[in-house]
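User: My advisor, Dr. K., asked me to get a structural model of this assembly before our group meeting. I'm new to this, so sorry if the format is off. These are the inputs:
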Amino acid sequence: MNTATTMLEQSINLTISPRLAKNIRRNIKERIIEFMLMLAALSAVFTTLSIVGVLLYESLSFFKTVSVVDFFTDTQWTPLFEDAHYGILPLVSGTLTTSAVALAVTIPIGTIAAIYLSEFASHKTREIVKPILELLVGVPTIVFGYFALLFLTPILQKIFPDLPGFNMLSAGIVMGIMIVPYIASVAEDAMRAVPMSMREGSYAMGATRFQTAVRVVTPAAISGIVAAYILGISRAVGETMVVAVAAGQQPIVSFNPMESAATITAFIVQVAMGDLPHGSIGYQSIFAAGLVLLMMTLCFNILGHMLRKKYHERY
Amino acid sequence: MMSTNMTTETPPAPASALKNLGEVRAMIKRHKLNDYMFSLIGLLALTLALLTLLTLFTDLVMDGYQRFNMEFLTEFPSRRAAHAGLLSAWVGSALVMLVTFLVAVPMGVAAGLYLEEYAPKNWFSDLIEINVTNLAGVPSIVYGLLALGLFVYILDLGQSILTAGLTLGLLILPIVIVSTRESIRAIPIAIREAAYAVGATKWQVVYDHVLKYSYGGILTGVIIGMARALGETAPIITIGALTFIAFLPPTPVTDVAPFINFEWLSSGFTVLPIQMFNWLSRPDHAFHINAAATGAIIIVVTLLMNGTAIYLRYKIRKNIKW
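Assistant: The format is fine. Below is the predicted structure of the whole assembly, which you can bring to the meeting.
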């Protein structure tokens, strides 16, 4: 009896049945695959961390030489000159001015386009127009830079003879047109999320399409529409090639779009085109500028996404 | 009492009713006109976007048509504008695209699969999701700074094709992840349940069914991402790509064993948009003609890629009815 049990135990211990063995192998394989997929997903976290890490690391070395107060209050940005000044204000003013011009163009056009697409256009029109808008989003920005510098600026110079060859006006306008499809599609999303019953209520009271669109749908979708504007600002602030080509490279504090001025992004491009030695203060300055840029776009993006979430929750 | 009240508030006399009716009709007319006007303005706003695209393209073709010949594609850049060509730029673009593809597609698809099929609902998955959303909004030039600090100097990969491919790969990663997730989400749960019911493991379900059925949607996202990478200029400038390249990288395929070499990965390079930017920033108008021709080529290629993607997505939506 005893010996029989031990023999049975031994046989269990020694030979795992082939099916069980296969299961174990299978489980291990499954685990390994899941782990590898997770690593791939973690690459997003890793990318964010390295962006913040690299920018902070180089900026910290930059701020060892330049005081933070100077950085935010000095009105001159001349890191490559003999008499170096490191005030970010001129670059920020250039960035804000071009973005403001872009918004002045994109908000009216984008909003009207969104209202039209969501409330007026027939199904067929929408099917045709939306892919075209998507194609417009896919056009590389350097091409828009060409358009601003060599097409729009000469036309604007006929209207305003004093306009310099590089100016923030033309860059801003082209940037604005470039962002229209984006703003229109985000705002349209928000408007289409408004429940049909609200429109029907309005029509039942005898309101016209236009009245319904402006007085019912737009207020109901306002948080999503504002989110579209804010995400648009973030785009304009981070846009590089149009301003690098068409807005000019002099860092001056000016809010006049008729002038030529550098933006944060244009400055980074300008420095990167030259050959700056690794570790020099000029090299570090583009990381400090990049950090300011990242902070600005991050704030707009977070605000925009929060507002977008708000309308998703409501309806 | 009640009745007197009622009588004092009787509807207006027929004459004034008619007058009111006229007013109402006028008002309806006015409002209908408003509707009509707005739909015109709306169409105009939309046409403006389309018109810009057309003007842009016509302008480029008009300015650059003299350079549309084979020589433009087979010559190196040169100091003489009329003899400068795109050879090193388009070869560079093709090789960078290859690296970008190899980086972004496996990583993006894997990440998308994990987030849709595997990730548990907890803070850790939320963290990854928030990161993907935020990365999509980071300006492309910031990716260039990341690459300059991390790839070029810390990892010491230099200003090479590999660095550029990795940078653009990270840049389009969110696009690939989002499109993968969207097309996976469209697959009904019943498909997965059926596969589990016959004893498939999770990976077998994911690989043999989920991945295979979402193939078209993923492809759409990949094409859009690659088109974006092709046109990206800012991050490549930031890593310090050279603008005057009069040589080709070593060929990836050789005629001696082992037939493949990887020297091209560490070679210096230039790409189409950088070459365009370089020509565009010269004061000499003759080079602007070259820039226009390059721009026209870039637009045609990216529009074709995006057009293909949009068409594909349209076909898939139309054909698949679960």
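One thing worth pointing out at the meeting: Chain A has 13 helices and no strands.

User: Perfect, thanks a lot.
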